[in-house]
Amino acid sequence: MRVASEIALPIPIERAWEVLVRWEDQPRWMRDADSVRVLGTRREGVGTTIAVKTRVLAVALFTERLEVTIWEPPRRLVIAHRSFVRGVGEWRLQPVEGGTWFTWTEDLRLPAPALGELALRAYRPFMRRLMLGALADLRASL
């Protein structure tokens, strides 16, 4: 399942990057994140690992382990989902007049191929709304 959302942020690209990678602050704008913590001492770069207590339909259901696989500040971040949910999330930032264009894409799958695909298809509209809301919350918090 692939879901993408994008938004213009009214801050320069370097500042947008700083805001996005403040891991522990992500639950302030990321609606499905109940809490985020960095695992280990590495806070930036490839190999950074975080644990995200994730909500599904507003219920904190599981803790997901995510690992940074591509780190290209301030333009691109790719994170691999390494728990029950598999796949990658990607953030792309591009400078535009008046700020930064932020694109967030999630490409996810579940372990049981047929059943997992069905579950993700059913969840996709909720995830799309979550991402759109998160981006609106992010912009409002700046």
Oligomeric grouping of the chains? single chain
Q: Which sequence of strands runs across the widest sheet?
A: 1-7-6-5-4-3-2
Overall average residue pLDDT:
94
Query: How far is it from the N-terminal to the C-terminal residue, by CA?
Result: 30 Å
Main sheet? 7 strands, antiparallel
Explain how this protein is built.
- The structure is a single chain.
- 26% of the residues lie in helices and 46% in strands.
- By secondary structure, it is α+β, with helices and mostly antiparallel strands.
- A hairpin with a 3-residue loop joins β4 (59-72) and β5 (76-82).
- The chain starts with a strand and ends with a helix.
- The mean pLDDT is 94.
Topology:
Layout (H helix, E strand, L loop, with lengths): L1 E8 L3 H8 L12 E7 L9 E8 L2 E14 L3 E7 L3 E11 L2 E11 L3 H29 L1
Antiparallel strand pairs: 1-7, 2-3, 3-4, 4-5, 5-6, 6-7
